[in-house]
Amino acid sequence: MTLNNSVKILVIGGGLAGLTMVSALNRLKTKKNLDITLIEPSDWHHNQTEWFKYCNGYTQKYSPTHLVNLVNSETTNWVDEPLGDLLPEKSYVLTASGKRLDYDYLIIACGLSAKWDSIKGLYGKLGRDGIASVFSYENLPWSRSLLSETIAKRTIFAHPENNKHFITTSLETAFLYAHRKQKAHNQDDYEIKFNVGSSDLFFNSYHSEVLEKHLARKRIRISYGNSLMEVRPKTKEAVFYNCNNNSETVIPFDLLHVAPSMIPPVAIKQSTLSDIDGLVDVNNSTLQTKKWHNIFALGDISNATEIKNISSVIEQTPVVFSNLTALMDGRCASAKYTGLNHCFLTLEPAKSINLKTVFSKEKKSYFFSLMTKKEEPSHYLYFYRLLIEKLRFFNLVFNGRLIYPFR
Ligand SMILES: Cc1cc2nc3c(=O)[nH]c(=O)nc-3n(C[C@H](O)[C@H](O)[C@H](O)COP(=O)(O)OP(=O)(O)OC[C@H]3O[C@@H](n4cnc5c(N)ncnc54)[C@H](O)[C@@H]3O)c2cc1C
User: Fold this and answer.
1) How far, in Å, is the centroid of ligand 1 from the Cα of 297?
2) How far is the CA of 47 from the centre of ligand 1 (A)?
3) Pick from 362, 263, 224, 266: nearest CA to 305
4) 236 C-alpha to center of ligand 1: Å?
5) 233-264 pLDDT, tens per residue?
6) Which pTM value belongs to this model?
7) Do domains 7-112+264-333 and 114-262 have the same CATH topology?
8) CB-based contacts of 80, cutoff 8 Å, min separation 6
9) Domain spans of the chain?
10) Which of 91, 24, 6 is nearest to 325 (CA)?
11) What is the Cα–Cα distance from 20 to 150, expressed in whole angstroms?
């Protein structure tokens, strides 16, 4: 499918960010003579927000979308392999099988993957023996049953230290679980703990305090600095390491919800483009990599912001699109990512709050707007969130017509 004198654009990762970019670029394909290639090893596109909804009983079924329904084979060359190696100085990448793919512009959007094997004893146990996770697609139906049906006196939510990006998903699951418990049981009949490996809940202290207040209302006891190291399914025990006093604690459970560490693909981590955490190191304004101006990164794999969610992707895609087309036209990349983020949390059925932030990497801080003062969950914010989530698909399906009315 190579076209003569065409501009070769390579997109790594066909998740939300990668597919939205492919979709948007397809609109320019003929006009700019683009040769678009997507590297995506999976046949299936997952909408992870739906995992959460399905597991918490919001929807009755979940099924991923086959990539052939989202990628136009006439306009995009889909290579169904993982990335093997990045060679930015030579302007090509190698796939896992060694296939060479040249590019003029590279867009990295390969997200983060769950690392389960750092928890001893967990292998093969997710979805059974009282161990659930909304982060594991393979076990969603079992996790759903466990979360809704287990009559648990002792429930533990375990969230690791190095996965603060996705803590909202663990928290929301805990909030909705606690809500069901409050409705159905006497408060002396159960206890819910939320053990988190880090020393705080969120990226700024104001939001952490708001969340702590809501956790207290739902009678969820939070404990900091506790990372899950081991599960003992036979005896229903979880072993936590506490970094504050360098000790191990064995806690019995009836129901344990586990969140994994999320890690970048090895090829990215080992490349010269990554930062100390293995994320792609970008100029957090233009979203170009710091070393190579013809390489962009967006979505979860980029280090432009610590909050990894749909809102980040929605804000980043038009910036990358605009800067990429500027470079193709011989102009400077002038579109700027502001770090604005709508971080929604559903605390009760159909009621959400919005931890709206603006992240400034230079100042290493988060600012939050007036909207964050609305600390009470509301129906309005819940439906606002649903609308944004629907729009993400709208963007994908309707040929990348990027629509961003909510800022
Ligand atoms: C359980 C869960 C629930 C969530 N709930 C919410 C929510 O309610 N609201 C919200 O805003 N956000 C939520 N998020 C976060 C949101 O899903 C992500 O921020 C968003 O999907 C990021 O898009 P992405 O394209 O960067 O990464 P992804 O959507 O993860 O896509 C990455 C793609 O890259 C591919 N890939 C991986 N490795 C390679 C490789 N080596 N080579 C090539 N391709 C590769 C993957 O197969 C995948 O298709 C949730 C995340 C999880 C895990």
Assistant:
1) 14
2) 8
3) 362
4) 31
5) 999 999 999 998 999 999 999 999 999 999 99
6) 0.93
7) yes
8) 40, 41, 42, 43
9) 7-112+264-333, 114-262
10) 24
11) 39
Q: At the fourth CATH level, which superfamily is domain 7-112+264-333?
A: FAD/NAD(P)-binding domain (3.50.50.60)
Fold of 114-262: FAD/NAD(P)-binding domain (3.50.50)
Token match 């081991």: residue? 230
Amino acid found at 57:
G
Nearest-CA residue for ligand 1 atom 38 is: 110
For ligand 1, pick from 71, 310, 386, 396 the residue to mutate: most ligand atoms within 8 Å of CB: 310
Per-residue pLDDT reduced to its tens digit, 36-93? 999 999 999 998 989 988 998 889 999 999 999 889 889 999 999 999 999 999 999 9
Evaluate: CB of 308 within 6 angstroms of ligand 1.
yes
Burial of 405 (0-12, 13-18, 19+ CB in 10 A): exposed
